[in-house]
Amino acid sequence: xxxxxxxxxxxxxxxxxxxxxxxxxxxxxxxxxxxxxxxxxxxxxxxxxxxxxxxxxxxxxxxxxxxxxxxxxxxxxxxxxxxxxxxxxxxxxxxxxxxxxxxxxxxxxxxxxxxxxxxxxxxxxxxxxxxxxxxxxxxxxxxxxxxxxxxxxxxxxxxxxxxxxxxxxx
Length: 170
Prior knowledge:
By secondary structure, the protein is an alpha+beta fold. It has helices spanning 8-15, 19-33, 55-64, 74-86, 91-97, 103-111, 134-140, 146-149, 163-166, and strands at residues 40-45, 48-53, 89-90, 115-119, 128-132.
């Protein structure tokens, strides 16, 4: 449970504390770990609190990881941006933004758990619809999609992800 973060309600349930006590404790922890002596920080991502490596140390920490790290290609980043901005979206709708079907890119994004798919039984033919995951939010270090939805241009040239974030995608 803790490896995926904990919501305020989950913390309240585990500790038996009231919401204001939990929020005060979270504030204290965030403040304590914001100092230079700590290499991690507490962040609220997708409504759950988790510890993350600070940006300053991300490059070094990523070198210590045993798991190989995959960088997103330009076309994968473009498809991910299209999905994030227009979700839920079908493969055919994604292809309307690009030339050809992005089957390979979608397959890799699914493998990285940055997107998920499910059948849309309300549409003719029950096509798969694609949406981003909490892992996507966690990887980008954002709490919700309002940051993404506000952007107009979803082309690869305008879809920049900081190196520390790219190196954190396994």
